[in-house]
Amino acid sequence: MIEYPVSFVGLPIGNREDITRRALTVELESCTVELALDSGVLLGSGRELPLCEVEVELKRLILLIMVLELFLIKRFLVLLEKMKF
Fold first, then answer.
1. Phi and psi (nearest 5°) for 21?
2. pLDDT digits (tens, 9 = 90+) for 46-57
3. Given pLDDT bands bounded at 50, 70 and 90, which one contains residue 83?
4. Which of 11, 14, 54, 77 has its Cβ near the most Cβ atoms within 10 Å?
């Protein structure tokens, strides 16, 4: 697991953030998944907004793409067959 500070682009001037991301990459047979937890506070205009976000990101997927390709090819062939006069 890695831990590093996170910065948000686009915050109004004078605002800042104090956020840490903890991330773990999981390698599976058919895909790679990144699990991340962002926690901290957004600070601005004299106020604090707590932030806690969990993110699951699919990095690499093999099996689902292969199944989707086969489905689309089959669907395309069915449409071609229906278009014959």
1. -110, 130
2. 788 888 889 888
3. confident
4. 11
